[in-house]
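A reminder from the course coordinator: this example appears on the midterm review sheet, so study it carefully.

Given structure:
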């Protein structure tokens, strides 16, 4: 199996990925449920982030919290023109095309980066675990400039000159609100500046027949293939069974928007029962079968605006003018050369090819996508805008939004478990999305996966509305700008700053915890503020419910009062988990008495225990100092403070009056000179 994987990777390396330079710069946007990396060259080529074959399926991670959720295999951006005089070679080309991606990159003489910076409305918080920086934002949210007037959370600003004389300014916007954190908005301005080389040489000429041509090789998702856990056929990972649909080419067809979207279809070599829609986990040498859905994602792009012409800024409903699907391994997708007249003519012809009679998904229909067209790599989406004429100084404005939606991770496990029950002889009934039932687990699975179409449409609608409102959408309070998680032997102390409390409509905080690693479901373990059991705002939580021997991870969110929520009125808006999610483990040791130099501190067991109403607690100090003795409930909420003062050495006794408290487990916790010493469990029985 390992030899087969290595052979596959070698073939890909040898055949597919010539023609790239390795000096380009990349940045992540990773503040919401959708994460992606971006290149300063203006588009994200295949194997382009680190130039490692293992990254062939890399980027567009959703839901990004979990491992191997990458849905992006490659992208391309080509700019073409007709009757172009090229001063570099003193020749007029019938068709001139410059390229970045899907496998080509030349930042020295073709697509030449000028500016590449990340602008943030605020910086990411400082997240510490036992005093060490411990958040993925350290490398996935590198802010170059703070702009407090910015409405979205992030703006990645990218300027690129091209050897065809067009300068591209690309602005990528990201929002972290829970209703808008699964898409990015791309705002492009393509201007005829005449700049044709890295030195800034200007060649003024009118550009005719200009087409801006985007390619999208989608492959939901990495988890199921050879770069993940490998329970699907080997070439399913990079898109051979990806289905590609386009809607809205005809503005009179009644669709609310112009969009393309993709999902995983059927594969002829599927090894499990039923079909591979959603790619349920049927097991591999690397993972135990449990049926969970590894590819429920729908990914795509909606066109928000495209100028009619350089002199007419109204949106052209007939753009994009080309939406043909393309063989991802076609000769024109690699070996691109801006001086090869024959090859550029073929490229331009495809860029201007218009719309197919049937989309790729319509042509495949209910068949196996991998058997369509005889390609080894499946098909990519394309969209071409133009043709247009640009005199020197003219520009074209295009706005797109790219997003991913579908079943949540939790739902993918729930549906997958029921499908797995059917696959092993179960008869249901299984509840379909419309509330009806079926005994066919495959029908059940597919119906739930196909709800992703409605979800991606909803995502497109929100992205369009966000842009058209000039990003004037309700935002949650910012996260705390400092979040610290510290192990104190027998408990875990979480503290955070209060900056979010200055935000309008701020209502409180929530803390979530996961065990083992971050690739698991986080559960709410503490909340304070409006609508919670702990109505008083706190900036500290002591987790006394953690189990010894387990690693724990945390994040904290700020939430508002729900008064600004225009999608689900009354539901609080929460800051993004990714701002504060820890990536280093923390654990506890229970029952250990910590030694402070030159002294010993003892905390005795309360008596009686179990107790009714009252119990006595004794502790001994061999050195005077500041003492805190507090009682907590089983959820880690503070019940009362028994001692909070300087005390002398010797034995001390206090009484805990539990009148009015419900029966259950409580914890007594002793702190000396801000150092946790020990904690005891107590049982109240009314």
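Designed residues:
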């Amino acid at each position: 199996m390992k030899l087969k994987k290595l052979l596959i990777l070698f073939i890909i390396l040898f055949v597919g990925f010539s023609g790239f330079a390795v000096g380009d710069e990349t940045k992540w946007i990773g503040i919401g449920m959708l994460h992606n990396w971006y290149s300063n060259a203006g588009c994200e080529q295949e194997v382009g982030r680190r130039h490692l074959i293992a990254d062939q399926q890399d980027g567009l991670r959703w839901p990004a919290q979990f491992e191997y959720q990458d849905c992006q295999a490659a992208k391309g951006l080509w700019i073409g023109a007709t009757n172009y005089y090229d001063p570099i070679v003193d020749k007029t080309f019938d068709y001139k095309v410059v390229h970045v991606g899907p496998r080509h990159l030349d930042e020295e003489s073709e697509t030449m980066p000028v500016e590449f910076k990340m602008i943030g409305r605020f910086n990411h918080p400082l997240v510490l675990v036992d005093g060490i920086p411990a958040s993925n934002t350290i490398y996935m949210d590198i802010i170059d400039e703070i702009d407090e007037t910015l409405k979205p959370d992030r703006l990645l600003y990218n300027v690129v000159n091209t050897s065809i004389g067009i300068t591209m300014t690309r602005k990528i916007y990201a929002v972290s609100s829970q209703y808008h954190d699964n898409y990015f908005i791309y705002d492009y301005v393509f201007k005829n500046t005449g700049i044709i080389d890295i030195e800034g040489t200007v060649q003024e000429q009118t550009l005719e027949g200009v087409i801006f041509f985007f390619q999208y090789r989608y492959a939901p998702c990495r988890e199921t293939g050879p770069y993940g856990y490998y329970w699907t056929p080997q070439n399913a990972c990079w898109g051979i069974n990806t289905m590609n649909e386009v809607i809205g080419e005809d503005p009179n067809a009644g669709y609310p928007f112009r969009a393309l979207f993709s999902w995983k279809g059927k594969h002829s070599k599927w090894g499990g029962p039923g079909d591979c829609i959603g790619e349920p986990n049927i097991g591999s040498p690397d993972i135990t079968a449990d049926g969970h859905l590894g590819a429920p994602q729908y990914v795509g792009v909606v066109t928000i605006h495209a100028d009619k012409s350089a002199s007419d800024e109204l949106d052209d409903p007939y753009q994009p003018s080309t939406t043909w699907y393309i063989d991802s391994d076609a000769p024109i997708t690699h070996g691109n050369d801006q001086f090869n007249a024959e090859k550029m003519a073929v490229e331009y012809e495809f860029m201007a090819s218009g719309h197919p009679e049937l989309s790729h998904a319509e042509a495949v229909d209910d068949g196996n996508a991998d058997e369509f067209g005889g390609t080894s790599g499946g098909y990519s989406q394309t969209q071409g805008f133009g043709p247009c004429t640009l005199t020197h100084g003219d520009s074209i404005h295009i706005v797109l939004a790219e997003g991913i939606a579908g079943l949540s991770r939790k739902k993918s496990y729930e549906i997958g478990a029921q499908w797995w029950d059917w696959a092993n002889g179960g008869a249901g009934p299984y509840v379909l999305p419309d509330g009806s039932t079926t005994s066919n687990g495959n029908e059940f699975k597919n119906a739930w996966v196909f709800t992703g179409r409605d979800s991606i449409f909803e995502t497109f609608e929100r992205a369009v509305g966000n842009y058209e409102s000039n990003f004037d959408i309700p935002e949650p309070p910012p996260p705390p700008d400092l979040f610290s998680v510290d192990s104190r032997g027998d408990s875990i102390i979480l503290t955070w700053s209060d900056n979010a409390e200055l935000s309008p409509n701020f209502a409180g905080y929530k803390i979530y915890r996961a065990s083992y690693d971050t690739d698991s479901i986080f559960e709410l373990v503490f909340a304070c503020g409006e609508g919670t059991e702990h109505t008083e705002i706190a900036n500290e939580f002591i987790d006394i419910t953690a189990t010894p021997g387990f690693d724990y991870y945390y994040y904290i969110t700020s939430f508002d009062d729900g008064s600004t929520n225009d999608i689900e009125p009354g539901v609080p808006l929460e800051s993004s988990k990714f701002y504060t999610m820890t990536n280093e483990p923390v654990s506890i040791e229970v029952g250990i008495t910590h030694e402070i130099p030159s002294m010993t501190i003892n905390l005795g067991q309360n008596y009686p225990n179990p107790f009714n109403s009252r119990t006595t607690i004794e502790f001994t100090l061999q050195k005077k100092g500041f003492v805190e003795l507090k009682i907590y409930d089983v959820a880690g909420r503070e019940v009362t403070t028994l001692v909070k003062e300087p005390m002398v050495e010797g034995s001390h006794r206090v009484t805990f009056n539990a009148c009015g408290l419900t029966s259950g487990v409580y914890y007594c916790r002793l702190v000396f000179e801000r150092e946790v010493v020990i904690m005891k469990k107590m049982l109240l029985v009314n």
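The domain at 482-579 is CATH 2.60.40.10 (Immunoglobulin-like). The first helix runs from residue 2 to 16.
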